[in-house]
Design goal:
- It is a single chain.
- With about 350 residues, this protein is α/β, with parallel strands linked by helices.
- The protein has 2 domains: about 180 residues, 3-Layer(aba) Sandwich (Rossmann fold); about 150 residues, 3-Layer(aba) Sandwich (Rossmann fold), CATH 3.40.50.
- The chain is built from 11 helices and 14 strands.
- Strands 3-2-1-4-5-6-7 form a 7-stranded parallel sheet, sandwiched between helices.
- Helix 3 packs across helix 4 and helix 6 packs across helix 10.
- The protein starts with a strand and ends in a 10-residue tail after the last helix.
Length: about 350
């Protein structure tokens, strides 16, 4: 049997590309499982899609509050032990990692067991988990050129349903352009605050859909709809004439694949490692998005930039829809090429 374990968690950007791969993987592998942290976003998503899920302990590395890392070695050891047990039980032939702190215990467990590891980085620069994983990997894929010295270029996999969204009837004035504000799976306070100050002026001219993120409250007026989270994101993408978003690689990949007008307000360096600014700069250089730095964000600049972008022609879609099939085939070939014995027979 040839089985694969998917890992990656913490945010939707680490999880949804894995989910996009599952249909293509299921055509080739005998079994596809997901390993992540308990009570997490990845567990909820997998259970909602009937993907076998196994929990392991993991903890995020804190760059600023260093004292919070004191228990990290103990948690990592527990996570590695649990992951080894799962990999053996499921006779996993290959581990595919999309990064994030939730992935690392399983990566180490796979390395100990001699199971080939493949990782994929969606951002312009590598996150910490993938920087540690890449030297241990059989192959490294990146969505951007020059992210890693020995990488193979591969777009971030996108779920097929993203391309089958439908325009939904949400507002009374069908002639108005529709704006979609979103800040990623965790929300974006700066975008939410700027919209709250510009809401009155914008709603005089546009329909507004606002995904507020965790903690937001549903709200409905004739030209404004606020949602904490959207299950039907494909429909909202299709319904929007302009999307205002953070600079997460997976979200930008989906929006540019659809050929949407996009205004990126990236999370600035200091609040992150600077990856969103790098992602936004790359896509802007390709003519696929417009960028408004958070330092320049205000109610007035937001409205002015939106009024300008909405008049522009949308860019052409930029994505090869065969990506999930291509990547799934390469993962299967790597797993078979190694001719690894079942994990249950490997060293303990």
């Amino acid at each position: 049997m040839t089985n694969i374990a998917l890992v990656g968690g913490g945010t939707a950007g680490h999880i949804m590309p894995n989910i996009a791969l599952v249909p293509a993987l299921e055509k080739r592998f005998d079994r596809v499982i997901y390993i992540g942290t308990p009570n997490s976003m990845e567990e909820k998503i997998c259970k909602g899609r009937n993907i076998p899920f196994y929990p392991t302990k993991a903890t995020k590395f804190h760059r600023r509050k260093i004292w919070k890392n004191a228990l990290l070695p103990f948690t990592l050891a527990q996570g590695i032990a649990a992951a080894k047990s799962v990999l053996k039980k499921e006779n996993v032939s290959i581990v595919f990692s999309k990064g994030g702190y939730a992935a690392f215990p399983t990566v180490i467990a796979a390395r100990i067991l001699g199971i080939p590891i493949v990782c994929h980085e969606s951002d312009r620069s590598m996150g910490l988990a993938n920087r540690l994983t890449a030297p241990l990997s059989e192959r490294v894929y990146t969505a951007f050129p020059k992210t890693y010295r020995k990488a193979h270029l591969m777009p971030t996999p996108i779920r097929g349903e993203i391309f089958s969204g439908k325009v939904i009837d949400l507002f009374p004035d069908k002639e108005r352009k529709t704006l979609l504000f979103m800040g990623g799976s965790l929300g974006a306070k700066a975008i939410n605050d700027a919209l709250s100050e510009s809401y009155a002026a914008l709603s005089e001219k546009y329909n507004i859909i606002h995904i507020t993120g965790k903690g937001g409250m549903p709200l409905r007026t004739p030209y404004y709809l606020a949602l904490p989270y959207a299950e039907n994101i494909a429909d909202l993408f299709t319904s929007a004439d302009l999307v205002i978003s953070r600079g997460g690689a997976s979200t930008l990949g989906e929006l540019t694949a659809l050929g949407k007008r996009v205004l990126v307000i990236p999370l600035p360096k200091g609040e992150s490692r600077g990856d969103q600014e790098e992602n936004a700069a790359y896509y802007r250089a390709q003519g696929l998005v417009s960028v408004l730095p958070q330092s320049a964000l205000s109610a007035d600049t937001l409205k002015s930039v939106i009024d300008d972008i909405i008049l522009k022609r949308p860019p052409a879609p930029a994505y090869d829809r065969e990506t999930p099939e291509t990547l799934a085939k390469e993962l299967y070939d790597i797993a078979r090429m190694r001719h690894c014995p079942p994990a249950s027979e490997r060293k303990r």
